[in-house]
Design a protein that fits this description.
Length: 349
């Protein structure tokens, strides 16, 4: 249903790269509920090329984490290409170039979304990366619809898009907001329609305002894109992939996950985080996930507040015992239908 170079996926959607979120634990949970492809959180090129513990962690690919995309961000074409080659050698199935991040400190260092305003450097990065990665391994690109709403910004966008395909990039994912918008205002799906029409039979993926399975189905139908990248909409809601599979197969939308099922998934996610980060870091790191998981609980506000107060592993177990007790009769779970709280300040999507 979706092909990215030689990579054949059985559904036209994927879990996007999310800085600070899409680690191995989140990717494993997403795959369990039907995501056929997931991307590692964005990595800065210099952290990949510098020897040390961080480099080893960034380049580690688990045997059960395939297919997985490694997303890179940087400003120097030579260093960017060197990092891409290391990621390809380490076992990432796809190398993804980030020209989309709208965070101010990223833009200030001429990275991420800044490169949409600098086509010569953006093109040289793509050229170097495609040349550094083995030809059988796909290289993809993540963009926003431009730096801003100016005609020059749009011209830059289409120049970079066209060269990306000319260089042999396998797919381009487009977020329907501009860099200047960040996460304010709606994603422009009409622009996605124009991009897909312009690209013809080349692979275009859509992103932006995908908070429910119905949004995924509507974007595919309305814009004609080949697939969709789900970002904020799957934080704390891996069930979105199961629901999307049902809709796209013509089946009824499944009932929202019951509280006991939610609790089981959260407990599993917590345990994976403990295995990855240890008891000192994992309970605090998981709070942002707990807040998002709480949106599906029938007592969402109380559960959110309980997760916010967690500091230790024991606190997490107490919240799960109180609010996700499988022996208690709970009202039906809720379904997420909107953006809710934004992702943490400083995160890239």
């Amino acid at each position: 249903m979706l092909q990215i170079g030689p990579l054949k996926l059985d559904a036209p959607f994927a879990q996007a790269a999310l800085s600070g979120y899409s680690d191995l634990a989140m990717r494993r949970i997403a795959r369990r509920f039907g995501a056929p492809y997931a991307l590692h959180e964005v990595a800065l090129d210099r952290f990949v090329t510098q020897r040390g513990k961080l480099r080893r962690r960034l380049l580690e690919v688990a045997p059960d984490d395939h297919p997985v995309g490694g997303q890179l961000m940087g400003a120097d074409p030579e260093q960017f290409a060197a990092a891409a080659a290391l990621m390809a050698e380490s076992g990432f199935d796809v190398i993804d170039i980030n020209f989309a991040c709208p965070v101010r400190k990223v833009l200030g260092r001429s990275r991420g979304g800044f490169l949409l305003s600098d086509p010569p450097t953006a093109i040289e990065i793509m050229r170097r990366v495609r040349g550094a990665v083995p030809s059988e391994k796909p290289v993809t690109l993540k963009m926003r619809r431009g730096s801003d709403d100016s005609p020059e910004s749009e011209r830059n966008f289409f120049r970079i898009l066209d060269v990306a395909f000319e260089l042999g990039l396998a797919a381009v994912a487009v977020h329907g907001r501009s860099v200047r918008q960040r996460y304010v205002g709606p994603s422009d799906w009409g622009f996605l329609t124009r991009v897909k029409r312009h690209a013809g039979d080349r692979v275009v993926l859509g992103s932006g305002d995908l908070f429910a399975a119905g949004d995924m189905a509507r974007m595919l139908e309305q814009t004609g894109v080949d697939g969709v990248m789900v970002a904020r909409g799957c934080i704390g809601n891996p069930w979105i992939f199961r629901e999307a599979r049902a809709l796209l197969a013509g089946r009824p939308l499944p009932e929202p996950p019951p509280v006991a099922e939610q609790g089981g998934v959260i407990h599993e996610h917590l345990q994976m985080a403990l295995d990855l980060y240890g008891e000192k870091i994992a309970p605090r790191m998981m709070r942002k996930f707990g807040i998002k998981y709480s949106e599906l609980h029938p007592s969402a506000t109380n559960v959110r507040d309980a997760f916010i107060r967690t500091r230790r592993h024991a606190d997490w177990l107490a919240v799960l015992d109180e609010w996700y007790d499988p022996g208690r009769t709970w009202p039906p779970g809720r379904r997420k239908t909107g953006p809710g709280e934004l992702i943490a300040a400083g995160a890239c999507e």
